Write the structure tokens for this entry.
Amino acid sequence: MEILGIDIGGSGIKGAIVDCNKGDFVGDRLRIPTPQPSKPQSVAKVVARISSHFDWDAPIGCTFPAVVKRGVTLTAANVDKGWVGTDAAALLGKHTGNPVLMLNDADAAGIAEMRFGAGKGVDGLVVILTLGTGIGSSLFMDGKLVPNTEFGHLVIRGKDAEARASDRAREQKGFTWKQWGKRLSEYLQYLEALITPDLYIIGGGVSKRYRNFFPHIKCDTQIVPAQLRNRAGIIGAAIAAAELM
Ligand code: BGC
């Protein structure tokens, strides 16, 4: 089955048609910069442009970098606060003329990694962390998603974990890989103490440079890089829409 997957991020909104059986794009991806400020109406117009670009007339799976329940975006850590309480599924549905399934961006990436990437066939408790502007998290027990975990907002040393250990924090604070690795280790160990995962999968753009920072990470849980990288959100969103709509 083919579904249009759309990944709404803080800097870009990306879309591609996904072959949900193969877990890959059919043709090219389209990326349009996220309007600033990223208000619901402006973002909805971009999503509609992507849907028209693909001449799409079927369900859409769409990620959002916040808590999403029953189509409503409930938080907005790194996007315009106007999204809090917005029925995003209804808004994007109106603009695209298609039914839209909304889900958290890290949950979507996790779905794709568990189905086609580093988590394929892995049972037990798996945590996927996407390291980018924020820290996204998704949690799977025996392959089943527990949505909206928001582990990026655990408080470490009195601060939001993502403010200390996201890839943006690394860039902004000019950390070396070793310094960043130390912060990540502290975060991963804290999460371990809470839920004792069987596997950590590390995603987000920086995961392609895992050889630089994995050697500096100390934790008891097995840790592997994500495999689908920046395609994971789009692919996971499409799979979720194919299965839930
Ligand atoms: C948000 C999460 C999101 C993550 C990655 C966090 O700030 O609270 O919902 O998954 O950033 O975008």
In short: The pocket of beta-D-glucopyranose is lined by residues 65-67, 75, 77-78, 104-106, 130, 134, 136, 150, 152, 162 (CB under 6 Å). Helices lie at 40-53, 88-96, 105-116, 161-165, 167-173, 177-195, 210-213, 232-244.
